[in-house]
Design goal:
Shape: elongated
Number of strands: 5
Largest sheet: 3 strands, antiparallel
Helix content: 40-55%
CATH superfamily: Chorismate mutase
CATH architecture: Up-down Bundle
Number of helices: 3
Structural class: alpha+beta
Number of domains: 1
CATH class: Mainly Alpha
Radius of gyration: 22 Å
Length: 165
């Protein structure tokens, strides 16, 4: 088979590498879930731009050592990183829905950051609009921030979870 058709043998090797790549990508996604859980517990943002830039810089350097083009490495790993971010955003959304299942779901239109807002007293008046004020007794309050589709759009929503019994 290999002596008769060297192209077929090469394609089989490529297919075997593709299977390994898929297994590694699945393992990476599982680790992204674990990272997302750790970020949720430590109230860290889903997206860490400094980490992403450091990662890409290191991968481009490694890629050059393997004679791979920097543009190719950047495009490939931006997709992989975006998959991790989306996976972590889904985890954040699941967590927020458990806290308050009646809340409106956050659209996955852009990266989001969960920012806990600390309170000085057990009752915190929260302004939801110009005319509406609410007292939030002993509830965690989160401000959800995301990059809007258009830069001129406001990019904040207040999320007040329902009390946990």
């Amino acid at each position: 088979m290999t002596s008769e058709n060297p192209l077929l043998a090469l394609r089989e090797k490529i297919s075997a590498l593709d299977e390994k790549l898929l297994a590694l990508l699945a393992e990476r996604r599982e680790l992204a879930v674990e990272v997302g859980k750790a970020k949720l517990l430590s109230h860290r943002p889903v997206r860490d731009i400094d980490r992403e830039l450091d990662l890409l810089e290191g991968l481009i350097t490694l890629g050059k050592a393997h004679h791979l083009d920097a543009h190719y490495i950047t495009r490939l790993f931006q997709l992989i990183i975006e998959d991790s971010v989306l996976t972590q955003q889904a985890l954040l959304q699941q967590h927020l829905n458990k806290i308050n299942p009646h809340s409106a779901r956050i659209a996955f239109s852009a990266p989001k950051v969960l920012i806990p807002i600390l309170r000085r007293a057990s009752m915190l008046p929260v302004t939801l609009s110009n005319s509406l004020k609410v007292a939030a007794p002993n509830l965690p309050i989160f401000l959800i921030r995301w990059k809007p589709a258009r830069p001129t759009m406001p990019s904040y929503r207040l999320k007040i979870p329902a009390p946990v019994p």
